[in-house]
């Protein structure tokens, strides 16, 4: 079969046949082709080549001949004989184009000619993706092959290869939710084939997709599931397991755990000339791990070996990763000047993968910081964070879609199982006695109820995961919003020759990053964060700015929990949109006041008061980003509580005539539950 990463094997049944004798029946020919494919997957290439040559010599018609020629092309692919592949595919294409389709009659599993078309389309997909590095073109050919295979009702093994290839192409294109869906279809098909090797290949693919989504909880689950069957895998699948599991641990920054997997991957294919690509890929990965672990000599040796190979192969993507590792190696050895020179001479191609660009920017930022080149480090940091934010948002969306697809797949299996259970019950009712049948109905009724309860719990868990992902997506918009404002102020202060409060800024950054991971925080922690923030903002204000916190004595701020950073948003809006634009008037102050008091017997109210510009006539229609985040956060939290959080913003009415100001407030019940 045409499979991008590996060929799924099965039990070889050639012992039942007499060598590679020519057989006339289509079913026997199909069985023989399947067995030869299995031989290729198991690495028995000499035996497979002998069978293919004999069948080519004995072919009675052109369709059968070109089908076996397509089988030889698969052998070329496993040996990476790309020139031979190209010539063979062109021969098959010329034959297909010259044939008269109308004169052909479909056979039992689809005509040989239609099967040949599907095989050629699969081969073109693999060629464009694996050899040319164009998975978008590969996907077009692969999808055409899937449509062709559906028409001729081809054997499940071939359709499984097409689906797993489709999933891998989507993964390479960054469409990870589509990739997960294709793998789920492949998993449903492999479950019907009763072939452990088929299931193993699909499980490896699913684990890899979750790795690329950065959904490490699910990826760890699938990798551990696959690891139980490593000893039963074919060598190609074993390499995929060790190399991709190493990548999974590397992305989690578990470098010492990742290294043994890359070593096993390299050892598995070392010395095999047909697996040189795999070997040097593993060596490149080992080199990067050695850099992070500080093993500089081993890192240099591995990177030099891999770079020499991929330079000759002309594969720029891997060489880009290697060059990034070399910059990191220079930095580890204390050669900052060498690292800067390498960075200046290097370039980033437009087609480079975003993850590779982020890794390069991460290393460049470290180099600039080590060299005390702060403006350059800051610029690189902004560029890196912009790409990371884009990747994070895309991954979050795809993880949500993947969870939904997983839920739909499980629900379909549950429905199928329910039909089977119902048929089983009906059979028992037809053949059982009345008393026995009654007892069985009672027992099965309990089982159905338990299954239904389990199904409900599963649905609830999936919905909770989706809500939490949405919450994380919203929360991740808050911290950068404030932190980058603070950074801009400090940069402006430094440029204007003013004193920079690095201590307050450091605390603000540290607490801001910590707040991003939390849905709720104590009022005391929120106030501490606000004090750091205001201390930085006050440096940009004149001497007429005053800030004060008034708290009733009966309020224990350590025991009052509120949504994280909500009051912070109120404070920032008061300064940014209320106090800062207000003209300075001699003898008058620009005041910012936070008032905290109990409201009734079961709630705490926090007010943010300013005497700034107030709300304009269009302010209620054009809500700022921070206020939208506040509204969305509180609405989702309120959905899970009977006692609701109340909040709002309005113009102040307690000021003397002619003066303006704004009042922002939030009232949090004592019994409010922040768990989703």
Query: What structural class is derived from the secondary structure elements?
Result: alpha+beta
What's the oligomerization state?
single chain
Distance between the termini: 46 Å
Uncertain ranges: 5-24, 105-110, 394-400
Rg (C-alpha, Å): 32 Å
Q: Roughly what is the average pLDDT, rounded to an integer?
A: 79
Give me the number of helical elements.
Answer: 24
Percent helix range? 55-70%
Q: Strand count, sense and closure of the main sheet? A: 5 strands, mixed
Write out the strand line-up for the largest beta sheet, numbering strands in chain order: 2-4-5-7-6
How many beta-strand elements? 7
**Per DSSP, what share of the residues sits in E-state strands of 2 or more residues?**
5-15%
**Morphology:** globular
Organism: Xylanibacter brevis
GO molecular function, one term: kinase activity
Transmembrane segments: 424-450
Protein name: Histidine kinase
List keywords for this structure.
676 residues; alpha+beta; five-stranded mixed sheet; two-stranded antiparallel sheet; 7 strands; globular; transmembrane helix; kinase activity; TPR_rpt
């Amino acid at each position: 079969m045409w499979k991008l990463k590996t060929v799924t094997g099965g039990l070889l049944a050639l012992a039942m046949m007499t060598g590679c004798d020519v057989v006339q029946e289509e079913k026997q020919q199909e069985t023989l082709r399947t067995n030869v494919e299995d031989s290729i997957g198991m690495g028995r290439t000499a035996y497979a080549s002998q069978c293919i040559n004999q069948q080519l010599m004995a072919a009675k018609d052109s369709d059968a001949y070109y089908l076996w020629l397509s089988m030889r092309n698969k052998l070329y692919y496993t040996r990476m004989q790309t020139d031979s592949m190209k010539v063979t595919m062109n021969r098959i294409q010329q034959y297909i184009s010259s044939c008269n389709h109308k004169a052909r009659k479909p056979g039992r599993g689809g005509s040989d000619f239609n099967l040949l078309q599907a095989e050629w389309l699969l081969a073109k997909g693999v060629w464009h993706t694996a050899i040319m590095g164009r998975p978008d073109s590969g996907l077009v050919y692969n999808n055409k092959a899937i449509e062709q295979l559906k028409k001729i009702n081809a054997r499940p093994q071939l359709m499984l290869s097409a689906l797993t290839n489709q999933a891998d192409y989507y993964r390479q294109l960054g469409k990870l939710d589509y990739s997960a869906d294709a793998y789920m279809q492949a998993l449903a098909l492999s479950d019907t084939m009763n072939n452990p090797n088929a299931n193993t290949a699909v499980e490896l693919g699913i684990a890899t997709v979750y790795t690329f989504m950065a959904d490490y909880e699910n990826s760890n689950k699938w990798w551990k599931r696959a690891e139980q069957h490593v000893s039963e895998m074919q060598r190609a699948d074993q390499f995929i397991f060790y190399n991709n599991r190493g990548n999974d641990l590397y992305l989690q920054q578990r470098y010492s755990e990742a290294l043994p997997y890359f070593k096993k991957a390299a050892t598995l294919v070392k010395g095999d000339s047909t697996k040189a690509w795999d070997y040097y890929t593993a060596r490149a990965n080992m080199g990067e791990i050695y850099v992070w672990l500080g093993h500089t000599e081993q890192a240099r040796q591995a990177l030099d070996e891999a770079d020499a190979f991929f330079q000759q192969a002309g594969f720029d993507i891997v060489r880009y990763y290697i060059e990034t590792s070399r910059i990191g190696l220079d930095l580890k050895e204390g050669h900052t000047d060498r690292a800067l020179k390498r960075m200046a001479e290097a370039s980033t191609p437009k087609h480079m993968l975003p993850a590779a660009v982020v890794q390069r920017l991460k290393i460049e930022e470290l180099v600039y910081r080590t060299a005390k080149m702060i403006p350059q480090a800051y610029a690189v940091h902004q560029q890196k964070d912009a790409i990371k934010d884009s990747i994070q948002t895309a991954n979050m969306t795809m993880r949500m879609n993947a969870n939904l697809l997983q839920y739909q797949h499980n629900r379909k299996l549950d429905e199928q199982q329910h039909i089977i259970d119902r048929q089983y019950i009906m059979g028992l009712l037809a053949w059982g006695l009345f008393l026995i049948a009654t007892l069985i109905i009672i027992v099965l009724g309990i089982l159905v109820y338990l299954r239904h309860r389990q199904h409900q719990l599963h649905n609830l868990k999936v919905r909770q995961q989706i809500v939490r992902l949405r919450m994380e997506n919203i929360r991740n918009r808050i911290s950068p919003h404030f932190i980058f404002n603070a950074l801009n102020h400090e940069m402006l202060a430094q440029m204007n020759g003013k004193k920079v409060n690095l201590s307050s800024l450091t605390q603000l950054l540290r607490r801001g990053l910590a707040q991003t991971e939390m849905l709720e925080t104590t009022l005391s922690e929120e106030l501490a964060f606000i004090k750091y923030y205001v201390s930085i903002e006050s440096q940009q204000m004149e001497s007429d700015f005053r800030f004060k916190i008034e708290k009733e004595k009966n309020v224990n701020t350590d025991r009052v929990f509120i949504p994280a950073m909500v009051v912070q948003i109120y404070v920032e809006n008061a300064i940014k949109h209320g106090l800062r634009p207000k003209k300075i008037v001699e003898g008058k102050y620009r005041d910012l006041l936070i008032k905290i008091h109990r409201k009734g017997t079961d709630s705490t109210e926090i007010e943010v008061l300013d005497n700034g510009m107030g709300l304009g006539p269009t302010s209620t229609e054009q809500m700022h980003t921070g206020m939208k985040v506040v509204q969305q956060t509180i609405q989702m939290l309120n959905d899970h509580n009977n006692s609701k959080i109340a909040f709002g913003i309005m113009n102040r009415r307690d000021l003397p005539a002619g003066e303006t100001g704004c009042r922002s407030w939030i009232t949090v019940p004592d019994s409010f539950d922040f768990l989703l």
